[in-house]
Amino acid sequence: MPGDAQAAIRPSPTAIPRRWSALIGGTFQMGSADRGFVEDGEGPVRPVTLSPFAIACHTVSNLQFGDFVRATGYTTEAERYGWSFVFEGLLPDEARDPRTRRVQETPWWVPVLRAYWAQPEGPASSILDRLDHPVVHVSWNDAQAYCAWSGTRLPTEAEWEMAARGGLDQATYAWGNELQPGGEHRCNIWQGDFPARNTVDDGYFGTAPVHAFAPNGYGLHNTAGNVWEWCADYFSPSYHRLTPSQDPMNSEPAPNRSMRGGSFLCHDSYCNRYRVAARSSNTPDSSSSNVGFRVVRVEPTGDAA
Question: 186-217 burial, b for 16+ CB within 10 Å, e for fewer?
Answer without folding.
Answer: bbbbbbeebbeebeeebebebbbbbbbbebbe
